[in-house]
Design a protein that fits this description.
The structure holds 2 protein chains of 2 kinds. By secondary structure, chain A is of the alpha/beta class. Chain A has 6 helices and 12 strands. In chain A, strand 10 and strand 11 form a beta hairpin. By secondary structure, chain B is an alpha/beta fold. Chain B folds into 3 domains: about 130 residues, Fumarate Reductase Iron-sulfur Protein, Chain B, domain 2, CATH 1.10.1060; about 250 residues, 3-Layer(aba) Sandwich (Rossmann fold); about 70 residues, no CATH class. In chain B, strand 5 and strand 6 form a beta hairpin. In chain B, helix 3 crosses helix 12 and helix 16 packs parallel to helix 18. At the A-B interface, helix 1, helix 5, helix 6, strand 9 and strand 10 of A face helix 2, helix 3, helix 4, strand 1 and helix 8 of B. Strand 9 of chain A pairs antiparallel with strand 9 of chain B, so a sheet runs across the interface.
């Protein structure tokens, strides 16, 4: 009841004050938003992949470009091996399952937080990526990867090259058309500069981000 | 720790200027963030165009804030979020407190949020026996130290790594180190235990999208994602001015905010959260609550000059650019929001009487206006507030001073409006100044001006003033130079 009153009184206060403010506007102009549509780009697939890789590299992420599923599996296996990781958590993505099925490793699908806190690597896929910033985009309605991409100290992400777009604007348009309950943009590893502005990696989220880009148009 | 307030800005500032540790930190901040920002801006084609679009979008929202706010609340509720409305800080704190108590929760984690600092949420929760844990590294440091943030983006900028190490040794028992990675690693380890058993997560909000009811939070550390993903209940506290009309508007604001704040093209994480999960088996909290806070904001809509204050996206660029902030740091302002933006919003939030010195803590150099990503004319706002504060509730002394000022300016206008009167005035000045010149200077110590005219003593108390030259340039020119 009190909160309903609060809503009414806040909205009333906004209207009253706006009305009072209009007296001070010499000429009351409605603000106009310049509705310049997002520049759509006509970059080639290779250019998009290269831009994505360059920008991901520049924020300290690792980009592995492969041409088919078996190569992706190899890349994932190599990363896991180099970390001597034993506890592997994966999301419920079919492409991740297909890749890890072929490997002789034990994985836990959609692990609970307790397991995730003790795990070494999380493997998910990403629905889209932004080339101009090196960003991967995770949609929660397609895949359960919210925690698997966040809690383990290393995140390996599988990305189909065809889902890369050049600009943030293009991605916002796509994301909005069928808006997931949670959309997460990830650019590089977790970081902080809170102590003397010194960069430290891996403060709360993963300290390493590997993106395996599958480009099946590659020769 | 000592409580500094805005009312004593003068003393706070003087004390801060004696602190060499603070000074080196502030210099480092200005150089580092200044340089990073400059480089990041260069990666955008049309920075000015982006700023204009951002401001136009904000103006559009503010002129129809009731409509957009209503739309936001309705869409958020449709997606399963519970929307609460709070007129002021006590109401907002009560809403959050009741949500926590009703769930019998005791383990509460928080991600960095200036609006919860503004309403002093932690104090309100602690008074009821709930100890919320700050999880942003900088916020956690100052929470352990029992301090307040001194910067809205890097809250612990005033502390050295040695001080932070001492703090960690004392409060959480780590081994001695001055390695930033080790310090950060300890924070990760300790705070993960808190995340693992947290029942409620409290966050702020960077943008609320009207057309979808989405809230968006930016960060670099990952603690926001943990806070909004792990606990069963997520409470987001949001000022009513944070609304943007459409998801598409993020294109502009996500280009401006990280570049202005930390000089990044994009922060490491953006979370766009729309309502609550669709299915009980999905990840994420069972409940999402959004607390919409007014707390003096709607009042700022009543004038086009003050209305600009609500366009602020809290990037902190004006702090880094401000020569006053660079000298005194954030704590001297004695307020939640320091620096130029603090100097304009604090008097409006907490009242002129409690923050009357803040709008005067500026040289009006305009550096803040130049860096502001939404083109807030902060100097214009400062002058507006100075006038309001000076004109408001006149006392006898003020009336007397006003009369004196108006007489002085009338005399000035009389003398300077006509060349002959001007020359006459100068001659008279040269004659009378002989009474107060010592060794060719009007001395700051014991001069007649300060004894005769108390208002001018504010100027002469710390400075020697230069006397009028025996001969003006015009006279020199006329008598000697012209013929050469």
């Amino acid at each position: 009841m009190q909160e309903a009153n609060a809503r009414e009184s806040i909205l009333a206060s906004i209207r009253q004050n706006l009305a009072a403010g209009r007296a001070f506007d010499d000429v009351h102009k409605e603000a106009k938003i310049n509705d310049e549509s997002t520049r759509s780009t006509s970059l080639s697939r290779d250019e998009l992949i290269n831009n994505f890789k360059r920008n991901l590299d520049s924020v300290g992420g690792h980009c592995h470009i492969v041409s088919e599923m078996s190569e992706a599996a190899e890349a994932v296996f190599k990363i896991i091996g180099s970390l001597s990781a034993t506890n592997i958590a994966i999301s419920d993505s079919s492409i991740v399952a297909a890749i890890t099925n072929g490997l002789s490793i034990n994985v836990v699908v959609n692990a609970d937080p307790e397991y995730l806190f003790a795990s070494d690597v999380g493997v998910t896929s990403a629905q889209y990526a932004i080339a101009e910033t090196g960003t991967i985009v995770l949609e929660s309605d397609t895949e359960r990867h919210r925690l698997t991409s966040l809690v383990p100290p290393v995140h390996i992400c599988i990305l189909q090259a065809g889902n890369i777009r050049q600009t943030l604007g293009e991605i916002l348009e796509i994301v909005q058309s069928d808006l997931s309950r949670t959309v997460t943009f990830i650019t590089g590893a977790s970081r902080t500069s809170d102590i003397e502005l010194t960069l430290a990696i891996g403060v709360h989220g993963p300290r390493e981000l590997h993106v395996v880009v599958i480009d099946d148009h590659r020769p | 720790m000592q409580q500094v307030t805005s009312e004593t800005f003068d003393q706070n500032a003087r004390a801060a200027m004696q602190d060499p540790v603070l000074h080196s930190a502030l210099r480092h901040l200005a150089e580092n963030f200044g340089e990073r920002r400059k480089n990041a801006i260069e990666s955008v084609d049309d920075w000015e165009g982006l700023r204009d679009r951002a401001r136009a979008t904000k103006d559009e929202v503010l002129l129809h804030l009731d409509t957009y706010l209503y739309q936001f609340a309705a869409n958020a509720a449709d997606a399963g979020a519970v929307v609460h409305w709070a007129r002021d800080a006590p109401e907002a704190c009560a809403i959050v407190l009741n949500l926590i108590k009703d769930r019998g929760a005791t383990n509460v984690v928080k991600s960095k949020s200036m609006v919860t600092e503004e309403i002093h949420l932690n104090k309100a929760l602690e008074a009821e026996g709930i100890e919320p844990v700050e999880t942003d590294l900088g916020e956690w440091i100052i929470q352990l130290a029992g301090e307040t943030p001194s910067h809205i983006v890097v809250p612990a900028i005033h502390k050295t790594k040695t001080q932070i190490a001492e703090l960690f040794i004392e409060k959480v028992g780590i081994e001695r180190t001055d390695d930033v990675d080790v310090l950060t690693g300890s924070a990760r380890r300790i705070l993960r235990e808190r995340f693992a058993r947290a029942q409620v997560g409290i966050s702020g909000v960077n943008f609320g999208i009207a057309e979808t009811g989405t809230i968006l939070i930016l960060e670099n550390e990952g603690n926001v994602r943990l806070t909004t993903s792990l606990p069963k209940t997520h409470i987001a506290v949001m000022g009513i001015e944070k609304i943007l009309p459409r998801i598409a508007d993020l294109d502009v604001f996500l280009k401006l905010l990280p570049r202005s704040g930390t000089g990044q093209n994009l922060t490491a994480y953006q979370s766009l959260i729309t309502g609550v999960k669709r299915d009980a088996n999905d990840e994420g909290p069972d409940e999402v609550h959004i607390v919409l806070l007014d707390n003096g904001r709607s009042r700022m809509l009543a004038h086009p000059v003050t209305r600009q204050s609500l366009a602020c996206i809290r990037c902190g660029a004006c702090l880094n650019a401000c020569p006053v902030y660079q000298q005194v740091g954030g704590h001297a302002y004695g307020s939640v929001y320091p620096g130029p933006i603090g100097a304009v919003i604090m008097p409006q939030l907490i009242g002129y009487s409690k923050a009357r010195q803040l709008p005067f803590a500026s040289s009006l150099c305009g550096a803040c206006r130049e860096v502001c990503p939404v083109k807030i004319d902060i100097p214009e706002l400062l002058l507006h507030l100075r006038a309001e504060i000076t004109d408001g509730s006149p006392t006898t002394e003020k009336r007397f001073r006003k009369l004196g000022e108006s007489l002085a300016f009338r005399l000035y206008g009389f003398l300077w409006s006509d060349a002959r009167k001007y020359r006459l005035g100068m001659k008279a000045g040269r004659l009378f100044q002989k009474l107060i010149i010592r060794n060719g200077k009007i001395k700051k110590q014991g001069n007649v001006i300060s004894r005769l005219m108390p208002p001018l003593a504010n100027w002469t108390a710390r400075r020697d003033a230069s006397p009028l030259a025996p001969k003006s340039f015009r006279e020199h020119w006329h008598d000697e130079l012209r013929t050469k």
